[in-house]
UniProtKB/TrEMBL annotation, chain A:
<dbReference type="Pfam" id="PF00005">
    <property type="entry name" value="ABC_tran"/>
</dbReference>
<dbReference type="GO" id="GO:0016887">
    <property type="term" value="F:ATP hydrolysis activity"/>
</dbReference>
<keyword id="KW-0067">ATP-binding</keyword>
<keyword id="KW-0547">Nucleotide-binding</keyword>
<comment type="function">
    <text>ATP-binding (A) component of a common energy-coupling factor (ECF) ABC-transporter complex.</text>
</comment>
<dbReference type="InterPro" id="IPR027417">
    <property type="entry name" value="P-loop_NTPase"/>
</dbReference>
<keyword id="KW-1278">Translocase</keyword>
<dbReference type="GO" id="GO:0015087">
    <property type="term" value="F:cobalt ion transmembrane transporter activity"/>
</dbReference>
<feature type="domain" description="ABC transporter">
    <location>
        <begin position="3"/>
        <end position="246"/>
    </location>
</feature>
TrEMBL record, chain B:
<dbReference type="Pfam" id="PF02361">
    <property type="entry name" value="CbiQ"/>
</dbReference>
<feature type="transmembrane region" description="Helical">
    <location>
        <begin position="26"/>
        <end position="58"/>
    </location>
</feature>
<keyword id="KW-0472">Membrane</keyword>
<dbReference type="GO" id="GO:0022857">
    <property type="term" value="F:transmembrane transporter activity"/>
</dbReference>
<dbReference type="InterPro" id="IPR024919">
    <property type="entry name" value="EcfT"/>
</dbReference>
<protein>
    <recommendedName>
        <fullName>Energy-coupling factor transporter transmembrane protein EcfT</fullName>
    </recommendedName>
</protein>
<keyword id="KW-0812">Transmembrane</keyword>
<comment type="similarity">
    <text>Belongs to the energy-coupling factor EcfT family.</text>
</comment>
<keyword id="KW-1133">Transmembrane helix</keyword>
């Protein structure tokens, strides 16, 4: 699914003392099967942008086109519901959305809302819970009895069971320990390959963006100020500094070593990868 | 949806009204509310309206913005007006449809009572719009202090009030977030049959309760570890200061009350 954002502005509470322009004349494109990273300071409009793609917020002016579905200022609810079949959002701390009596029922909630039969919804739920390595012994338990990490996996399975074509991730690893962080990100990478998903990752973590994304959009004060291939943008220190963003760790390390006279042809995607390559070099 | 609602909201500002002591604002509001009930003819109601407009100007608030924000109140207003229109008898009969009549007294009463209602709501809204919830509870705690003598837990009540006021925006945000999360999972509480809509509220209410209880627990622990033991011997970070303009304000309202008393029939 290709997403085309055409000259979209979003204004919150227009004509009141609280009026706030969250997005200003944004135009951009998200293409099928790619992994996008969206970065920017807090309050730059990142979360407004992702909610726009799902019809949670409608544009004040402009259009969002998702293949041939259109979202505009006065789009009808039916159309929005249609869009939500294809675009799944994993919000920050998704475990806060759990509510059902059992884990299995909670995962089935999304697909059933989208008109999938109970039997099929259950099949899907079992499949994705298994995919995320949730212990089958937990399926009939209350989601509130699980640990934080398990709850997040269940919430995630709830979104995946809707089988979206585009997966939007809003700080999906916030509050996770380093190993769960790695595991979750690797999972997205795998899902993307297996299910041919388009992934849009919103995060403050430049390392993740550098390691996983193909393209980057930088937002500042409601505008897209940079967009292009990840390896071009995230290795440009001057450019990142202009928007008060940090270089990814592995890029900083590589730059330092290059300055000291070492040759690094291609900057590795992550510190782990860097270490592996560095050790090979010594051997 | 809830964004234009201004009931109980606070807008920071630097007007004279903003800078007044919250205690004097409470006293003036109560006085004005008493004055509203003294009004009984066109002249006195006009005086009330002028007075409220004057206070709005002093507080640097746009009357149109305030009226728009009070949309919810208008349902009540229209209901009151209609009740008077059909049920109050007296004066000349304007419409006689057999099973109901509209009489001139009904219209007059309807307009008067409607104005009274609007004045009461607007004046209290001005108070909350210009006074932060925290200073409001501070003021209430100070004013209720004498009640301690008869063993009323004034500090505890004020504390509970300020905590609940403090959490209104937080819970609103939380509700908003959960609504968004569930709608993106296809929950349809905005359309469909009433029965389905009520059912669709569960996925919102349950997570909201879970997080509210979690918050309350965290808060209790945070207070505990910081050694909170109640009001005994506590000093206040914000000290309320009564100034000349507060006295002046109250005198002004009293004078206005005298004027209304003199104008009423």
């Amino acid at each position: 699914m290709n997403i085309l954002i055409d000259d979209v502005s979003v204004t919150y509470q227009p004509k009141t003392p609280f009026q706030y322009h969250a997005l200003k004349n944004i135009s951009t494109e998200f293409r099928t099967g790619k992994f996008y990273g969206i970065v920017g300071q807090t309050g730059s409009g990142k979360s407004t942008l992702v909610q726009l793609l799902n019809g949670l917020i409608l544009p004040t002016t402009g259009t969002v086109k998702i293949d041939d579905l259109e979202l505009k200022r006065r789009t009808k609810y039916k159309m929005i519901h249609e869009v939500r079949k294809y675009i799944g959002i994993v919000f920050q701390f998704p475990e806060h959305q759990l509510f059902e009596e059992t884990v299995l029922k909670d995962v089935m909630f999304g697909p059933m809302n989208m008109g999938v039969s109970e039997k099929d919804a259950q099949t899907r739920a079992l499949h994705y819970l298994n995919e995320l390595h949730v212990d089958p012994a937990l399926y009939e338990k209350s989601p509130f009895d699980l640990s934080g990490g398990q709850m997040r996996k269940v919430a995630l399975a709830g979104i995946l069971a809707m089988e979206p074509k585009v997966l939007i991730l809003d700080e999906p690893t916030a509050g996770l320990d380093p190993s769960s962080h790695k595991e979750t990100m690797e999972l997205f990478k795998r899902l993307r390959e297996e299910l041919k998903l388009t992934i849009i990752l919103v995060t403050h973590d430049m390392n993740d963006v550098f390691e996983y994304s193909d393209e980057v959009r930088i937002l500042e004060a409601g505008r897209i100020v940079e967009s292009g291939p990840t390896e071009d943008i995230l290795t440009d220190q001057k450019l990142l500094e202009r928007y008060s963003l940090n270089l990814p760790d592995v890029v900083r390390l590589s730059h330092d070593l290059i300055r000291k006279g070492h040759t690094i042809d291609k900057i590795p995607k992550s510190i782990d990868e860097f270490i592996v390559e560095w050790r090979l070099r010594d051997a | 949806m809830l964004s234009s609602m201004i009931l109980g909201r606070y807008i920071p500002g630097d007007s004279v009204i903003h800078k007044m002591d919250p205690r004097s604002k409470i006293i003036m509001t109560v006085l004005f509310m008493a004055i509203v009930f003294m009004a009984n003819n066109t002249l006195t109601y006009a005086a009330l309206i002028l007075f409220v407009l004057f206070v709005l100007a002093l507080a640097k608030l746009n009357p149109i913005f305030v009226i728009k924000g009070l949309k919810i109140v208008f349902v009540l207003l229209i209901f009151t007006f209609l009740m008077h229109l059909f049920l109050t008898k007296g004066g000349t009969v304007l419409i006689d449809a057999g099973w109901f009549t509209i009489e001139s007294e009904g219209i007059v009463r309807g307009v008067f009572i409607g104005t009274r209602l609007v004045m009461l709501v607007v004046i209290t809204t001005i108070m909350t719009l210009t006074t932060s919830p925290i200073s409001l509870t501070d003021a209430i705690e100070k004013m209720a202090h004498p009640l301690k003598k008869i063993k009323v837990p004034v500090h505890e009540i004020a504390m509970m009030m300020s905590i609940s006021l403090r959490f209104i925006p937080t819970l609103m945000d939380e509700t908003d977030k959960i609504i968004k999360a569930q709608s993106s999972r296809g929950s349809t509480f905005m359309t469909g049959k009433v029965k389905d809509r009520i059912k669709a509220l569960l996925p919102i209410i349950i997570p909201l309760f879970v997080s509210a209880f979690q918050r309350a627990e965290d808060m209790a622990i945070a207070m505990e570890v910081r050694g909170y033991t109640g009001g005994e011997g506590r000093t206040s970070f914000r000290v309320l200061k009564w100034t000349f303009k507060d006295t002046l304000g109250i005198i002004f309202v009293i004078l206005f009350g005298v004027l209304v008393w003199w104008l009423r029939t």
